[in-house]
Inverse folding.
């Protein structure tokens, strides 16, 4: 009886070590691809591999990069391409929103925080209190587009109109008030699609379009991501929404935007964001703790260089410097 | 004399071999697992209270918190924390869901327990349990991509995300659990009740309606309450199907926002320790207390059932 169990146990041990070996093998291939969800798993596996002492890349340096959902696709692409530049550095990218990245920076748990809005005064103070001195780097620009259902005949929209649709106390809640007859929207009600109240996109729209100190009116459908905004507007004839240009699809129409009566109506595009003529284009930031040095500094330099900026351009954002991309 | 002998025998048998140690080991392991539930629930309550409690002393105003519908925690000029719209959102969605799910699942439970037999009953039970295992995000997806255009088409409303959509999805999610628990309650009614009624010449329906249902009353109420608790605490599906809009609803087509969905959508992007963060934890305390109360009532009702 006892003997049998012992043999069984031994078999299990052998089986386990085989499994671990297999895992460590697959782990090294996974590391080249930086995907958010795998990060934790990779770490746990790495720890196991180190414990067993059977290989693993001990000289590989990790850069933790976290924050803005607006920037997450670009950050992912940067991380994936950076492997070909410096294979000793692995960049782990996580989304979660600008606020998440900034609070991680305040708590000192990331090397680089991505944000689609600037850090607020109290956030910088909180970081300094924790011994972190956040340094701001502008890595690109993003045009904030207004989305309409393609059947909507509205072709241009002004800041004043947006303010009376989205702003607190705004009095426009039906399309007829804008002189629009909407096919497929029999009630004529404007379905406002917005973002959740701590997203960087929400904060920027509030500041740039509604104006300093103005609040959003309650009752908008607050989506949890830019692509959700686009999806909902595409399936809702009465809808209007806003989000980063990079998330636009064929299923929505983007009207041109005027600041006030008499100024030019400019359509959102990477070009109009670069030349500054599009009125709601915002800088995208990366924050580092102190002046970036070593691997983090090299990574940021590469991002601001030609290759990094061309990757950003390819994802639908406007580069900081004028670059020629193939 | 006799008892002494017994003790002697049992001590003789207590040989401390490996089996004895295994026995002790597993006894301790089981004890720890059992007690850990108490430990966990106390520490969860402690945690959310610790994170949210200071909100009560800083910017908490009873009037604003419970009677205002302006939930604007991130406003730069004038942050307000009114949960009226959120609480009504949760209540309306849960209420609508129960309106659909309670009759449906009680009838299903009665059918499975009293009328179905053999294979039909087994297949139904397995399928209903399978229905309970569908992840809530999948339900949310169904609401978003199938129900939303359907509601727009059928009722000619501007947007299909709202109480109706959320309530139907939540009702479908709560129904399997309620059916399973209600069926257990009906099963717990002793067979001689039914036999006695049938011997008196009652029809199957008379037996069910006049004898079994009154006898299982408490268990059925508990099933409903647990379903309410499920609806109240559901997050993902509600977030995806309710429209997530701060709004005092006036019709079932209106978009609303639930307490749980608010926490889920906002907590991830909030700076730890900020006023907004604490306000969200205060919502957590509120939710915890309500679900705790619902579960407690359900438990007391079931206990009452056993006494009879």
């Amino acid at each position: 009886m006892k003997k049998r169990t012992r043999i069984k146990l031994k078999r299990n041990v052998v089986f386990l070590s085989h499994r671990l070996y297999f895992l460590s093998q697959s782990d090294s291939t996974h590391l080249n691809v930086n995907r958010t969800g795998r990060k934790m798993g990779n770490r746990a596996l790495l720890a196991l591999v180190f414990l067993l002492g059977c290989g693993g890349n001990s000289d590989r340096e990790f850069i933790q990069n976290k924050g803005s959902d607006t920037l997450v696709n670009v950050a992912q692409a940067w991380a994936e391409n950076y492997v070909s530049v410096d294979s000793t550095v692995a960049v782990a990218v996580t989304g979660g929103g600008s606020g998440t990245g900034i609070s991680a920076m305040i708590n000192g748990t990331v090397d680089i925080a991505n944000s689609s809005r600037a850090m607020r005064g109290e956030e910088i103070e909180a970081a300094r209190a924790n011994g972190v001195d956040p340094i701001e780097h502008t890595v690109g620009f993003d045009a904030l587009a207004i989305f309409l259902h393609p059947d909507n005949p509205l072709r241009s929209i002004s800041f004043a109109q947006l303010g009376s649709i989205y702003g607190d106390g705004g009095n426009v809640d039906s399309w007829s008030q804008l002189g629009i007859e909407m096919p497929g929207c029999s009630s004529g009600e404007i379905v406002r699609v917005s973002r959740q109240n701590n997203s960087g996109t929400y904060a920027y729209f509030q500041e740039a379009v509604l104006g300093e100190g103005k609040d959003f009116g309650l009752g908008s459908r607050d989506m949890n991501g830019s692509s959700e905004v686009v999806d909902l507007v595409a399936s809702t004839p009465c809808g209007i929404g806003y989000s980063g240009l990079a998330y636009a699809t064929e299923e929505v129409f983007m009207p041109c935007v005027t600041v006030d009566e008499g100024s030019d109506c400019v359509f959102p595009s990477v070009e109009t964001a670069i030349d500054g003529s599009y009125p709601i284009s915002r800088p995208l930031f990366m924050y580092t703790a102190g002046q970036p040095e070593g691997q983090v500094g090299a990574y940021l330099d590469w991002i601001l260089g030609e290759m990094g900026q061309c990757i950003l351009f390819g994802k639908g954002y406007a580069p900081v410097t004028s670059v020629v991309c193939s | 004399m006799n008892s002494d002998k017994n003790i002697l025998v049992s001590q003789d048998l207590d040989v401390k071999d490996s089996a004895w140690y295994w026995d002790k080991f597993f006894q301790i392991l089981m004890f720890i697992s059992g007690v850990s539930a108490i430990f966990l629930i106390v520490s969860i309550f402690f945690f959310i209270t610790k994170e949210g409690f200071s909100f009560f002393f800083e910017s908490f105003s009873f009037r604003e918190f419970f009677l205002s519908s302006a939930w604007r925690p991130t406003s730069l000029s004038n942050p307000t924390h009114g949960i009226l719209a959120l609480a009504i959102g949760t209540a309306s969605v849960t209420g609508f869901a129960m309106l659909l799910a309670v009759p449906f699942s009680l009838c299903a439970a009665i059918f499975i327990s009293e009328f179905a037999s053999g294979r039909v009953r087994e297949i139904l039970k397995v399928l209903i349990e399978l229905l309970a295992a569908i992840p809530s995000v999948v339900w949310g997806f169904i609401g978003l991509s199938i129900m939303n255009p359907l509601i727009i088409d059928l009722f000619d409303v501007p947007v299909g995300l709202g109480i109706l959509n959320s309530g139907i999805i939540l009702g479908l999610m709560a129904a399997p659990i309620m059916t399973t628990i209600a069926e257990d309650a009906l099963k717990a009614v002793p067979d001689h009740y039914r036999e006695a009624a049938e011997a008196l010449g009652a029809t199957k329906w008379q037996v069910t309606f006049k004898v079994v249902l009154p006898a299982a009353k408490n268990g059925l109420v508990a099933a409903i309450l647990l379903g309410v608790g499920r609806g109240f605490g559901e997050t993902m599906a509600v977030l995806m199907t309710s429209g997530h809009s701060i709004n005092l609803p006036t019709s079932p087509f209106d978009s609303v926002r639930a307490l749980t969905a608010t926490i889920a959508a906002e907590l991830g992007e909030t700076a730890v320790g900020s006023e907004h963060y604490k306000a969200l934890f205060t919502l957590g305390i509120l939710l915890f207390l309500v679900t705790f109360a619902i579960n407690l009532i359900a438990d007391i009702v079931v206990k009452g059932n056993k006494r009879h």
Observations:
- The radius of gyration of chain B is 25 Å.
- The first helix of chain B runs from residue 2 to 13.
- Chain B touches chain A at residues 18, 69-78, 85, 148-149, 152, 156-159, 161, 239, 243-247, 255, 257, 265-266, 268-272, 276 (CB under 8 Å).
